Amino acid sequence: MPKTLSRPYRFYIQKHKGLFSLGVIALLITNLFDSFIPLFIGQALDRIVDFESMTEVTRTLGVIAGLTLGLSVFRYFWRILWGRFHVSVADDLRQRIYSHFVQLGPGFYQRRSTGDLMSLINNDVNSFRMAIGPGILILLDAVFLILIITPIMLSLSVPWTLKTLVLMPLVPFVVKKVIDEIHNRYRRQQDQFAELSGSAQEVVSGIKTIKAYAQEKNQTQLFNVFNRKYEMACNQVAKVDASFSPVLELSVTVGSVILLVVGAPAVIAGEVTVGQFFAFYQYIQRMVWPMSALGIGFNYIQEGNASFARIGEVLNSPPDILPQGKTAVEHFQKLEVRHLNFFHPDKDLPTLKDISFTLKAGEILGITGMTGSGKSTLVDLLTRVQPAPAQSLFINGIPVEDIELSHYRRLISVVPQDAFLFSNTVSQNIALGCDAEDPQQVEEVSQVVDMDREIRDFPMGYESILGEKGVNLSGGQRQRLTLARALLRKAPMIILDDSLSAVDRQTEKRILDQIQSALADKDSQAKAPACIIISHRLAALEWADQILVLDQGQVECFGPREKVLRESPTLRKIAALQSESEGVFNPDEVPNYV
Ligand SMILES: Nc1ncnc2c1ncn2[C@@H]1O[C@H](COP(=O)(O)OP(=O)(O)OP(=O)(O)O)[C@@H](O)[C@H]1O
Ligand SMILES: [Mg+2]
Question: N or C: which end of the chain has fewer CB within 10 A?
Answer without folding.
Answer: N
